[in-house]
Amino acid sequence: MRVGVVTFPGSLDDVDAARAARIAGHEAVALWHGDHDLRGVDAVVLPGGFSYGDYLRCGAISRFAPVMTEVVSAARGGLPVLGICNGFQILCESHLLPGALIRNDHRKFVCRDQRLRVENPRTAWTSAYDQGAEITVVLKNGEGAYVADEDTLDRLEGEGRVVVRYLDGNPNGSQRDIAGITNEAGNVVGLMPHPEHAVEDLCGPGTDGLGFFTSLLAGRVGAS
Amino acid sequence: MPRFVVDVMPKPEILDPQGKAVLGALPRLGFGGVTEVRQGKRFELDIEGEDGDELLARVHAMAETLLSNPVIEDFEVHVEGTDA
Predict the structure, then answer these.
(1) pLDDT tens digits, residue range A71-88?
(2) Cβ within 8 Å of residue B24, ≥6 positions away
(3) Global ipTM
(4) C-alpha to C-alpha distance for A122 and A128, rounded to whole angstroms
(5) Which chain A residues are within 8 Å of B66, Cβ to Cβ?
(6) Closest residue of chain A to B11, computed from CA coordinates
(7) What is the pLDDT of chain A when averaged over all its residues?
(8) Rounded to an integer, what is the distance from CA B12 to the centroid of its chain?
């Protein structure tokens, strides 16, 4: 599949995300924040970083980048979109996902290997995992506390839209230990931890993150 | 040219770690008796045109769309030099 990776001014993890897509067998396509088209890609990754310097709020300016008009429209039409860290913040600011990410409750930047439980393996980005699979990937953020009102949280839980949950202690104050969520259709997924940093044994905590990228292939097989 | 002021504050039920950090620092500097600190943002917008309902509505739209995130923040708009 052709996987587009958007680079915003201030993106950091676009190269790693493209590399992860290639390792999973995809063709990585570079997309620029100023682009007005998605170059016919089959999926889009919004990578981590500090787009537009995190000015105003994390993701608040990026949401209005020209490429995001295309991403939002395509996502509503079913295009698989994965937002990692800053990408998750952008998806929330874009209202493709509910809730918001605020500063970690302990006010410190977190950078560590993080255990997660896959709560929903039915999304476009998690179908390679088993229900309840426990994985370890990198977590690195300063504003990663997921918040939403109680009704939204209850709806997310009730509809199985919590995709991954933190294990071994809550690293940032996220409500209900939520590390990642999906939209109703399951094509849009956002998470704070970084699966793209856990795709090779050489560096990072292993290859547990690769499933997010191989899931795309599984989804296509299932659909055809 | 009227100047509009938009005050954006974290909603009361949303944790405000920055405010908490300030609250913790004040007594260390000898400023006692402070029981709560909430930190927000203030925007000042100079806008061409006549002060009136139409401009006010536009500033509200700006505040709702970009300046604040209604999921976690509340905002108030006023024209500088007035109370409301």
Answers:
(1) 999 999 999 999 999 999
(2) none
(3) 0.85
(4) 9
(5) 56, 60, 64
(6) A149
(7) 95
(8) 13
